[in-house]
Amino acid sequence: MSRARDIADLSSVSARLDTLGATEGALSNRNVIINGQMQCWQRATAATTANNSYNTVDRFRAYSSGGAYTTERSTDNPNGTGNGYSLKCQVTTADTSIAAGEYAFINHEIEAQNLQHLQYGTSSAKNVTLSFWVKSSKTGTYTVGVYKHANGATAYMYRKEYTISAANTWEKKEFTISPTAGSTTFMTTSGGAIANNNGNGFGVSFNLMLGSNFHGTNDAWAADAKYGTSNQVNWMDSTSNNFYITQIQMEVGEAATPFEHRSYNDEFLRCCRYYYQIAGSDEKGTSGKHVGGAVMRGATGFYGFPMTFPVPMRAVPTFTFADVVPYVGDLGGSAASTLTLGGANTNNFSVSGTVSAISGATQGDSALLYMAANADDYVRFDAEL
């Protein structure tokens, strides 16, 4: 390699380090958004109607209170960014007359203890930069809201307008959020503190439609829950409207750095802190699973179902299941009518519980818990914010 090439490469590295230095952030683990690249979809990948819950992509909740729209996984993505998927939203029932209390938005919640480096609630509170790629068939002014949850202090909201200039064209948006935006001191005094716990820290909303109850001042913190401004377009006004978003990054500093690509395994484990699912057939095409074992302790059922989570969950999870089948030797198996968690060994690291017995099983028999190759068969653990 020539000396000139060496110098050029060193200059390139130096320039990138200067950019990272301007963010006041680390070389890795800069992005506090989990699954911003839309890699993990434990619940569903096909179009699913937004219902104020997590129903498709991990860590992003779809809210709607007027008309209807779906969310789904899309392979449409910004060319040249190294991204595989985006979140697609599609209007299915139009709402052309917005009531004051209506809304439609995509929300991402950030755990409070993951935001301690922002130093909110002190005079050292830091700037934060949000960047993302977006595309829509409907141009105009959109808004992003950042809600600082109370969680032991005071709740505040920040909102920022951005413009989608060209229809059906990927555009990168980025802006810096000052802790004193709007010439306020909310975030630099004690009420702006973010608790160092596993509760809600920030809620980041990408708004699609907002009634007048949710209109506030652009680029300013306020003691309210107004997610956007009066300039927000009504994206819900036509069934022709779609909206795509991906590569969402929030980081400390005054400049947006290149998107922090993380491996699927890394991102999946981050998602599992909030939601973990074992399904008979999943997004990666794996089919049929053994989910644990149990031993018949008496006449009422099998005791067992021990399971350790891939990572510690945010809190002791809620639990749902469908068509988990205990098999006992020649007796075969039948779908469990009950499968419950409980006992001193259930926590945010692991679970234990009981499963209903099958006919003919006697004390001391052991059972294998199994679900067939069916996407409707599942065991789910939910500790979402």
Fold and architecture overview:
This protein has helices spanning 3-22, 264-272, and strands spanning 48-49, 61-64, 68-74, 86-93, 103-111, 128-136, 140-148, 156-164, 171-177, 200-210, 220-222, 242-252, 275-279, 289-296, 301-308, 318-322, 325-328, 332-333, 339-341, 350-356, 366-371, 378-382. It has 385 residues and is mainly beta. The chain has two helices and 22 strands. Residues 6-16 have low confidence and may be disordered. The strands form four sheets. The chain has a seven-stranded antiparallel β-sheet with strand order 18-17-21-14-15-20-19, with no helix packed on it. 8% of the residues lie in helices and 37% in strands.
Short structural summary:
With 385 residues, this protein is mostly beta strands. It has helices at residues 3-22, 264-272; strands at 48-49, 61-64, 68-74, 86-93, 103-111, 128-136, 140-148, 156-164, 171-177, 200-210, 220-222, 242-252, 275-279, 289-296, 301-308, 318-322, 325-328, 332-333, 339-341, 350-356, 366-371, 378-382.
Describe this protein with a few key phrases.
385 residues; mainly beta; Jelly Rolls; 2 domains; seven-stranded antiparallel beta sheet; six-stranded antiparallel beta sheet; 2 helices; 37% strand
CATH fold field value of the largest domain: Jelly Rolls
Strand element count: 22
Radius of gyration: 24 Å
Rounded to the nearest angstrom, the distance between the terminal CA atoms is 52 Å
Structural class: mainly beta
Overall pLDDT confidence: 88
Query: Count of helical segments?
Result: 2
**Series of secondary-structure elements, N-terminal to C-terminal:** HEEEEEEEEEEEEHEEEEEEEEEE
Question: Regarding CATH, which class of the largest domain?
Answer: Mainly Beta
Biggest sheet descriptor? 7 strands, antiparallel
CATH superfamily of the largest domain: Galactose-binding domain-like
Q: Give the DSSP E fraction (strand runs of 2 or more residues).
A: 35-45%
The percent of residues in helical segments reads under 10%
What sort of overall outline do the alpha carbons produce when their principal axes are compared? globular
Strand neighbour order, sheet with most strands: 18-17-21-14-15-20-19
Number of domain units: 2
Which regions contain 5 or more consecutive residues with pLDDT less than 50?
6-16
Question: Which CATH architecture of the largest domain?
Answer: Sandwich
